[in-house]
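Run log // design_07
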């Protein structure tokens, strides 16, 4: 999965422009400007709660076309001191998308880094939308006595094919404990890169002020079943058909992410369904304010865009928001309920 997505010559992200109607998939910030604007206000609010540090690092993982960040910054301008204090850092693997982000966000002179470990010390606000689903997963299959890994090999005709590696008690330990006892044939996905990232954020926020907002499609609690899928021009295609030419992604196990944050010693909130999160942040009020200024056609587009993000049958429930904060802060906006218990 890592090679198919990131090979410097033949990888999907090295060669393709993934996003938008002409790309392979579409994301929330590309559907409605309200998404990034509300996240901008969420960040401004958290900045005030952590004592208005100046400077503050604002980081985004996988910024795509820079749309979320452009909308975020426009909304953040309503809190001028926050807008002045922020220093923008972007984590982006694709050089095609880096160029687009540099251009789109030129006014704030973003700096690029290779990962969260490379962010400077200090107060941090971090956002990531549809980043975790792009991190490489491993699939484990329950065998007769233990778990085995699903690997990619070649069939008799020399074509890529899934094969099962040897069963091993060590692989069983990688399966979430709640799923370990499931019957032979069960497939479970794990994402070591996502739990490593969650652990790194957890460690950072345990000792340094700030918050992260992770939004993605996925499930909570952990559950079995393969979710890895390949998309080309908005249509599902075979996983092994033509590696490097389709986007690969998998549902996020929010329980594994939350568990890694808690193990690192800081606070995690949610996940809450995206529809509920955006509604709690005032999506309808923002829609009304925007609608009052435009004609009927534009109003219809704003309306249908927001519906798509909030409607449970579309992106409202499958997509979820999870927040990580430094300890001792009250519930961040949109996460009114109790702190997450994480785990599985
Ligand atoms: N957040 C954007 C784009 C989501 S697509 C949006 O909501 O529209 C995933 C993004 O993550 C792309 O920008 C992609 O190039 C980037 N990406 C994927 N894997 C990455 C990795 N391992 N390191 C850095 N960036 C990565």
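design_07 sequence
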């Amino acid at each position: 999965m890592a090679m198919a997505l990131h090979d410097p010559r033949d990888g999907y992200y090295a060669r393709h422009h993934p996003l938008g109607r002409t790309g392979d998939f579409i994301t929330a910030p590309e559907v409605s400007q309200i998404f990034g604007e509300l996240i901008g206000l969420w960040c401004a609010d958290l900045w005030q709660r952590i004592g208005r540090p100046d400077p503050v690092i604002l980081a985004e993982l996988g910024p795509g076309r820079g749309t979320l960040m452009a909308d975020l910054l426009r909304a953040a301008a309503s809190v001028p001191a926050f807008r002045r204090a922020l220093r923008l850092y972007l984590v982006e693997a694709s050089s095609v998308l880096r160029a687009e982000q540099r251009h789109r966000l030129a006014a704030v002179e973003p700096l690029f880094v290779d990962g969260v470990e490379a962010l400077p010390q200090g107060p941090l606000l971090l956002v990531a939308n549809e980043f975790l689903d792009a991190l490489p997963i491993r699939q484990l299959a329950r065998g007769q006595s233990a778990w085995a890994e699903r690997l990619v090999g070649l069939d008799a005709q020399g074509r890529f094919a899934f094969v099962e590696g040897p069963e091993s008690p060590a692989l069983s330990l990688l399966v979430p404990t709640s799923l370990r006892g499931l019957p032979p044939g069960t497939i479970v996905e794990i994402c070591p890169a996502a739990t490593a990232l969650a652990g790194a954020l957890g460690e950072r926020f345990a000792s340094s002020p700030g918050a992260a907002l992770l939004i993605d499609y996925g499930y909570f609690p952990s559950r079995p079943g393969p979710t890895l899928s390949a998309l080309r021009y908005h249509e599902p295609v075979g996983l092994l058909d033509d590696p490097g030419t389709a986007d690969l992604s998998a549902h996020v196990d929010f329980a594994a992410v939350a568990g890694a944050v808690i193990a690192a010693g800081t606070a995690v909130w949610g996940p809450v369904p995206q529809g509920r999160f955006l509604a709690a942040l005032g999506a309808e009020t923002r829609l009304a304010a925007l609608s009052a200024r435009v004609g009927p056609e534009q109003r219809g587009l704003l309306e249908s865009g927001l519906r798509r993000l909030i409607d449970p049958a579309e992106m409202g429930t499958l997509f979820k928001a999870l927040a990580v904060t430094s300890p001792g802060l009250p519930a961040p906006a949109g996460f009114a309920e109790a702190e997450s218990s994480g785990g599985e």
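The first strand starts at residue 56 and ends at 61.
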